[in-house]
Specification:
The chain has eight helices and nine strands. It has 315 residues and is of the alpha+beta class. A seven-stranded antiparallel β-sheet has the order 2-3-4-8-7-6-5. The chain has a two-stranded antiparallel sheet with strand order 1-9. The protein is elongated.
């Protein structure tokens, strides 16, 4: 099997062929990858304008455009003497069509660059095709009489496409941690924290009541600690709702929605602010025990809380 690149009399790949491959990967493939998003926007516009039947007429047009892109890529590579030009052009065109689909439906958070989804689709397409065909070009230096041809490029592209959802999960966790850290630093009221070695801060969210900190116990069960925004709200708010029963314990109020364990435990802190604790999915831990370890934040502790979130494994 011949290699991807032709060889000069010295046995080295021609520089012109290398440049043609890189140009196609770094310029042509990113431009081709913008075709599917543009097509989706056009299809959405047709649907909203009650011209959905026109989508059936787009099928031959789309097929023709994709084949035209593959043919132009083939002519470009063949003009510089690239071996397996048709295989490489089909691989590049197919990758340019596949990356937008994978990113849009399976890896929406795979954003390595600022600037929106189209920028990242074009960047990832150029990166994947360059690494793919780059591996095929490097295979020309492998010892032996037989070269793997374009097989390394196919394998690398396939593996990288499969890794995009995993990359999306990593980026999603990193983005969530950054937003949670900003939320903690920017909260305009004193924060109540749970100071207990068995509970680890895992997330922070804004709710209609205030700032919710999510802690995870040793078994992975979540516990939500919500610092209420308003100090004027009554600790018994909502206890008169049908099906709700509240048990007053002085500085605490246990809210029951059934005869089982309380669904929420509200605690009146020394500064007059109300903090509520509620278990997540699964069996509830003893909320009263956790309430004994609530305390106001210490000076400068917010930065430490934000750093703890950023250092967690990406979830």
């Amino acid at each position: 099997m011949d290699g991807v690149l032709p060889r000069a009399p010295t046995g080295r790949p021609r520089i012109a062929a290398v440049g043609a491959v890189l140009t196609l990967c770094l310029v042509g493939a990113p431009l081709m990858s913008l075709f599917p998003p543009a097509l989706w926007e056009f299809s959405r516009a047709l649907t909203l304008s009650d011209a959905g039947m026109g989508l059936f007429l787009l099928t031959p047009v789309v097929t023709g455009v994709v084949l035209l892109m593959a043919w132009l890529a083939d002519r470009w590579l063949a003009g510089f003497g690239v071996v397996h030009a048709l295989t490489c052009s089909v691989l590049v065109t197919g990758t340019a069509m596949a990356v937008p689909v994978v990113v849009s439906f399976l890896a929406p958070d795979a954003a390595l660059l600022p600037g929106g989804p189209n920028v990242n689709i074009a960047f990832l397409t150029g990166l994947i095709t360059t690494l793919g065909l780059g591996s095929a070009m490097l295979a020309a230096w492998l010892p032996g009489d037989r070269s793997p041809g374009a097989l390394p490029a196919v394998a690398v592209v396939f593996v990288l496409l499969l890794l995009l959802p995993a990359l999306s999960e990593v980026m999603r966790g990193r983005t969530a941690a950054e937003r949670a850290g900003e939320l903690i630093r920017g909260y305009g009221r004193p924060i109540t924290v749970l100071d207990h070695p068995d509970w680890t801060l895992a997330a922070a969210h804004r709710t209609h009541r205030g700032l919710r900190l999510t802690y995870l116990g040793g078994g992975g069960a979540p516990l939500y600690v919500v610092t209420w925004d308003s100090v004027s709200e009554e600790i018994t708010q909502g206890c008169d709702y049908p099906g709700t029963r509240c048990v007053d314990g002085g500085d605490t109020v246990a809210v029951h929605h059934s005869d089982a364990a309380p669904a929420e435990l509200r605690v009146a802190m020394d500064d007059g602010r109300i903090v509520s604790l509620s278990p997540g999915c699964g069996a509830a831990d003893d909320l009263a025990v956790a309430a004994e370890h609530l305390r106001p934040e210490s000076p400068g502790e917010r930065d430490l809380l934000a750093e703890d979130l950023s250092s967690l494994p990406w979830r």
